[in-house]
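This follows on from our talk about sequence and fold. Can you supply me with one protein entry, sequence and fold together? Could you add the entry underneath, on a fresh line?
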Amino acid sequence: MKYGGGDLGLSDEIYNSINSNDTTYGLWKDLERQMRGAEVGQRTQQTHTVWNYTAFRAKPNEKIEDPYLPFNKLINEMNCEKLKRTNIELNIQFLQSLQPEWKHFSIAIRQNQDLNKLDINNLFDLLKRNQKKVNEIRENNIVHYNPPSDFEEAKPAESDQSSDALADILQNMILLGLTNSLILLQETYQQQSPYYIRSYCSKQTSISQTKK
């Protein structure tokens, strides 16, 4: 007896892919393999969806509307894959995805709001109120860097040359001072040496006479 897909509770698409089997056993084995493949495909899709959800991050300088829309799309994909998340999980995930300039406002919301009762739309409304302040934070954090011109770059070299010249002058002055000091000491020694020799001899003579 020939059965159709509807008789076996199968869609025509599935039945037409296995109806070439001559035995019931072969038909059900093919059906089992197809169902197992469908399960693997579903798990792969779920893994991909969860990965995109957990890796979601807002981009720099975006307004709060920009990450809000794609995040809602991810929520919908999670629900379609039967991976529904609670309000608190969604709220925390979205807050953690924002850029650092939102940190102060995220902390304030966590401390003052019940994230279990707050849905993602309520969270968006609260954050949107602070968009102007976030824009001001971004403007104040911008550092304007003007690269030095050729003239400005040459200044350190001139300064180094001046420092080297000054060091040479000081070194020469020190050497000259030492030289002059040595000359003066030598002259003084030569002038005073006879006096010390005569004084020493007189003292030795006096000592000898005293002993006698």
About this structure: Residues 149-212 form one domain.
